[in-house]
Automatic annotation (TrEMBL):
NCBIfam families: DapF. One of its GO terms (molecular function) is diaminopimelate epimerase activity. Its EC number is 5.1.1.7. Catalyzes the stereoinversion of LL-2,6-diaminopimelate (L,L-DAP) to meso-diaminopimelate (meso-DAP), a precursor of L-lysine and an essential component of the bacterial peptidoglycan. It catalyses: (2S,6S)-2,6-diaminopimelate = meso-2,6-diaminopimelate. This is Diaminopimelate epimerase. It comes from Kocuria tytonicola. It is an enzyme of class 5 (isomerase). InterPro entries: DAP_epimerase_AS, DAP_epimerase_DapF. The record marks H194, E248 as: Could be important to modulate the pK values of the two catalytic cysteine residues.
Length: 318
């Protein structure tokens, strides 16, 4: 059961309550304004349906959030058990759902909030500089505690459509309200799908209307997150800067998207050519994220995403 329909003298109203999470203690937390309802379900008895997730994430009749995160021990979910075979230390699994109840593979802001939740709940000990491995649907991610937040090794990035993207610098066309003409986009895989669009001369990020979803063609089979970017001038040639707005799959426009920031930096760095820096600051409506490209021992290039995680409330769902 999800939201109850309740008869009142004023008519029928929708009320969250009487669902699978009734009585569960949750936290409301965010990373650069990307906000989540987080809870612990160590032994995996609280697998929730999409309607409950959507009801809890509803900003008017629920607690509100861009997504919901369930902290479950890896041994209690099939995807987690598969990861334990190669990473026996990935004790905790991040079960991430978008605000509309759909399942997503990965969330870059969410994984910092997730680890912060584990630390606060005393489920993981993580002194500054220490690392913890976390299971996600996109694979295992290593998270380190920094002086002001968390840094996550997000694994390798790749072009979704390798050759076309590399040769032409684009592999799709994106139409959005407020764009003067459809723009070329490039599809990037960060464990979850992204299409990155650079605005052209004269186009402004605040001229975009992201109340409706941008249209990406060819239509991605599983949908996509869409990032609009404007490179910013930077005096320091070692650090790139860009500004970004994002329309998230399964949510709508959000204040921030961690995987989106990684995809946006990867695309902008690729478009900039071999002289482009390895370190980027990505300005989003909810703050600033740091994205760094580092060579990995296996010959691939990994993306390290760093930023804050903040708790704003604890609550019990009714
Ligand atoms: N906000 C997240 C991404 C969440 C998942 C995304 N909406 C999807 O469906 O892939 C982030 O910080 O990465």
């Amino acid at each position: 059961m999800m939201a109850r329909m309740t008869e009142t003298t004023e008519g029928t109203v929708r009320a969250v309550g009487g669902h699978e999470l009734t009585g569960v203690r949750v936290s409301k937390a965010h990373g650069t304004g990307n906000d989540f309802v987080v809870f612990t379900d160590g032994d995996g008895t609280r697998d929730v349906g999409p309607q409950t997730v959507a009801a809890v994430c509803d900003r008017h009749t629920g607690l509100g959030g861009d997504g919901m995160i369930r902290a479950v021990r890896s041994e209690h979910v099939p995807e987690g058990r598969a990861l334990l075979r190669t990473h026996p230390d990935a004790e905790w699994f991040m079960d991430y759902r978008n605000g509309d109840g759909s399942v997503a593979q990965m969330c870059g802001n969410g994984v910092r909030v997730f680890v912060d939740h584990l630390v606060r709940e005393g489920l993981v000990r993580l002194p500054r500089g220490a690392r913890v491995r976390i299971g996600t649907r996109a694979g295992v991610r290593t998270v380190a505690r920094t002086s002001d937040g968390y840094a996550v090794d997000m694994g390798p990035w790749s072009f979704t459509d390798g050759e076309t993207a590399r040769e032409r610098g684009a592999d799709c066309v994106v139409t959005a309200a407020g764009l003067t003409v459809p723009r070329p986009g490039i599809s990037i895989d960060m464990g979850n799908p992204h299409a990155v669009v650079a605005l052209s001369e004269g186009e402004k990020l605040d001229g975009l209307d992201l109340h409706t979803a941008p249209v990406v063609e060819p239509v991605p089979a599983e949908g996509t997150n869409v990032e609009f970017v404007v490179p910013l001038d930077h005096d320091d040639s070692d650090v790139g800067r860009l500004e970004m707005r994002v329309h998230e799959r399964g949510v709508g426009e959000t204040f921030s998207c961690g995987t989106g920031a990684c995809a946006a930096a990867a695309a902008t760095r690729f478009w900039g050519g071999p002289e482009s820096p390895d370190r980027w600051f990505v300005q989003v409506p909810g703050g600033v994220l740091s994205v760094t490209f580092v060579p990995a021992p296996d010959g691939t290039e990994h993306v390290v995403l760093a930023g804050p995680a903040r708790v704003v409330a604890h609550a019990e769902l009714v």
